[in-house]
Amino acid sequence: MGTAEDCRDAYQWDRREDCEVRQILDRVADKWSLLVIALLDRRVLRFTELRREIDGISQRMLTVTLRQLERDGLVRRTVHPVVPPRVDYELTPLGASLHETIQALVSWTESHQQEIATARSAYDVRAAL
């Protein structure tokens, strides 16, 4: 845990590659992790179901993403002893708590998307001049 001095500089974590907070934020805020966490909200899915639901993700990238989320304690992987093997993925309580935070961000985005679209249009007009 950081000291009060570490926390004074709000962007200190962003400049230090070895900062654990930065590493965690990089992981959970990437687009594939966000999609996996959203899809696993209150349900259990197999690898193939996740891959089918996430447009554009490769098998390798989904594997890497799931392993990282499992390592961080956000996703639980359950292997069932059947032939062929069946593997299920679900959010852990920690992952579910992160989903609540992500949902708040999505809600904010939906509420402000028109304002953002207006700002982008105004910027594009200024940039074109």
What does this entry show, briefly?
By secondary structure, this protein is mainly alpha-helical.
* Number of beta-strand segments: 3
The percentage helix is 55-70%
**Number of DSSP helical runs:** 7
Main beta sheet, described? 3 strands, antiparallel
Count structural domains: 1
CATH architecture: Orthogonal Bundle
From the alpha carbons, calculate the radius of gyration and give it in angstroms.
Answer: 19 Å
Give the low-pLDDT segments.
1-7
Give, in order, the helices and strands.
Answer: HHHHEHHEEH
The CATH homologous superfamily name equals Winged helix-like DNA-binding domain superfamily/Winged helix DNA-binding domain
CATH class type: Mainly Alpha
Structural class: mainly alpha
Biggest sheet: strand arrangement: 1-3-2
Shape: elongated
Describe this structure as you would to a colleague.
With 129 residues, the protein is mainly α. It has a single domain (4-128), classed as Arc Repressor Mutant, subunit A (Orthogonal Bundle), CATH 1.10.10.10. Helices cover 64% and strands 11% of the residues. It has seven helices and three strands. The termini are far apart. Residues 1-7 have low confidence and may be disordered.
